[in-house]
Amino acid sequence: MNIYLIIFIVYFGIIIATSIAGSKKVESMEDFAVGGNKMGLLLGVGTSMATWLSVASVMGVPGNIYSRGVCAITGWIAGWFFATAVMPMVAYKIRRPAVPCRTFPELINLRYDPHNEKSPIRIFVAAVELVGYFVFSFIQIQGFGIVLSSITGISYNICCVAFMIILIFTCMGGFESVARTDTANAILILIGVIAGAVTVMQLTGGIGNIVENFVTTTAPAIEGQPALEAGVLGSSWGVFGVSAIISTFLSNAFGSIVAPHWVARFMAPKNAKTAALQMFCVLLLLIPVFGCLIIIGMGGKMILPTLPAGVTTDYMFPQLIMNYLNPVLGALALTAICAAAVSTANSMLLHCSTSLVYDIKRVLQDKKASAENDDKTTKELRMWVLLLGVLAVLGAIAQFSLLAQGFTYVYGAFGSMFFAPILFGLFVKRMNQPAAWTSMIVGLIAYLYCTICGAPLGLPTFIVSAGLSVISAIIIMNVTKKPPVETYEAFFFDEVSEETLRTIHKIRKDI
Amino acid sequence: MSIVPFVFWGASILSGVVIYVSVATVIEKSGLKRLGATGHLFTCDPKEDDK
């Protein structure tokens, strides 16, 4: 049997066993949505690390360095690391309340519309989250199907269905199951990228040869493209220039901090210190992973100077695996790509389900809180994970061409819309509901306009749209009424009033 | 080869150390076990420390 298949079957086995173990821990709706707000440090680090490492980073980073040079380290890697560096501050604020929120839309409900049980702002945010994360899940399935089928020769449709089975197994068990499989995936990703980097070092003769080739090569990234200027890959700003690289750094840094799935990751730990420490540990653990990805990107230029026409540079790492890696190491590296796709897509699918059932249906139904209703909601959450998973895989099989670019669009839209509501909401008491609505709408419209018509003065889309959103929030919050104390008290003070506590329980529909 | 990208990367990591230590210090100063105050900057399980 093909070595790739054997290692994949072992991988599937590990993931399914881990998911079943995690699903046994689910006793309540809170357990399903956020692991009961009692997640420990180890699981927190595992799930956060795996969430950072998507297909976009495991395949995209080596591809970016391969084609754009070391300047990609500034724009992308340093940007993501800066986001992770700031996250302990945001995590502390989000997990500070004694009774924490369970989902991102619920947090928006508490912060901006605490006395409305059918809050329009909560439903709007949940709908945006549902659409955005469904697109994410779909893209992950499609990307994974293409890579796996092109390497193993298995049909694309079978690859998509296999991916769906793993996804559904991990998500049906809820947050704990997702966190456990993420931790297993994080370990596999680390082993896989180390295997890739060690092989690249062996094939190239070491780091000295890699650097020497990288700073002198003129080979274009893709066949048919013009030759590169000698030394451009080793220069500080590459072919982009200072302004473009700094803008990319800012977009990656500030766009990532406010993604709703990160907000949910910060609610799950057992206390605020765990939430902050988990992100600090992730920052340190990501260093060897990205170190290996840099070696693969730079070394790839020596082993495979030019890629054949018709492929993108994202496929440089899979091309290396297929053509140069020892089959066992290659299978491990390929499993790392698979693990990266699973670990990102499972949490996206879980978000889709919680947005739809917990934040839209449960809020609109307006039923009285009871253990029976909570059990029913948990069952519905599982059912919708299954349905959305099937829908996403059918879309991937039908080959709707959302393309990988969709990933960037969703992240950009999330960043532009939620930057001000989240960061101002957590750090500025004056931030209120009109400012939150205005900043989200302005951010969305500006993002759509810049994406379709192009940003003015050649500025990056995210900088323009998030900038306008922030400016509008500052103006509106200063010309409208101050928010009531219940909206911000839990995020700014260690002790809260009875009224605030009552409001939080009411929003959560606690029994 | 330019070291500028590596300086940016290193600075991002360093800022992470500074930010985490500031956040952990605030939690420790509060002394609240509910927030995870343990008396140490790099631990987060108060029950464990109490044993």
TrEMBL record, chain A:
PANTHER family: SODIUM/PROLINE SYMPORTER-RELATED, SODIUM_PROLINE SYMPORTER. Keywords: Cell membrane, Ion transport, Membrane, Sodium, Sodium transport, Symport, Transmembrane, Transmembrane helix, Transport. PROSITE patterns: NA_SOLUT_SYMP_3. InterPro entries: Na/Glc_symporter_sf, Na/solute_symporter, Sodium:Solute_Symporter. The chain crosses the membrane at residues 6-23, 39-59, 65-86, 123-148, 154-175, 187-211, 237-259, 280-304, 324-345, 383-403, 409-428, 435-457, 463-480. CDD domains: SLC5sbd (cd10322). Signal peptide: none annotated. It comes from Coprococcus catus GD/7. It holds the Pfam family SSF. Belongs to the sodium:solute symporter (SSF) (TC 2.A.21) family. It is a multi-pass membrane protein. GO terms for biological process: sodium ion transport. This is Na+/proline symporter. GO terms for molecular function: symporter activity. One of its GO terms (cellular component) is plasma membrane. It is found in: Cell membrane. It catalyses: L-proline(in) + Na(+)(in) = L-proline(out) + Na(+)(out).
TrEMBL record, chain B:
It comes from the Bacteria. Keywords: Membrane, Transmembrane, Transmembrane helix. The chain crosses the membrane at residues 6-27. This is Uncharacterized protein. The lineage of its organism: Bacteria, Bacillati, Bacillota, Clostridia, Lachnospirales.
